[in-house]
Fold this sequence. Notes:
Blueprint: H1 4-11, H2 16-33, E1 53-55, H3 56-74, H4 78-92, E2 95-97
Helix pairs in contact: 2-3, 3-4
Amino acid sequence: MLSGLQRIVECGMRTDTQVDKFLTKALSKMFQCVGLKYTEEFTKQSDWYMLHSWDADTVAKYKTWFVAQAMKHFKWTKIKAEKEWGYFFLMWGWKQHE
Length: 98
């Protein structure tokens, strides 16, 4: 199943560049939340998103940031941005610990 961001590119609603810029920004922030610096090389590892974890409070703060940034970047409604958050988090979110 394609994420919403991937479907947007395929339908021609946004360019690869727009999606790539947002994904880079979102991943950079996600890495920062666990004390890392984002590099594309790191994400080429198998199951890279399983190598670190974050707590529920950090996830909630990141989700708030992600939704606000997606709304601004793509001019989406809050409902659309939250749906995309769900796809993003399921595909690439860090493991969650207590």
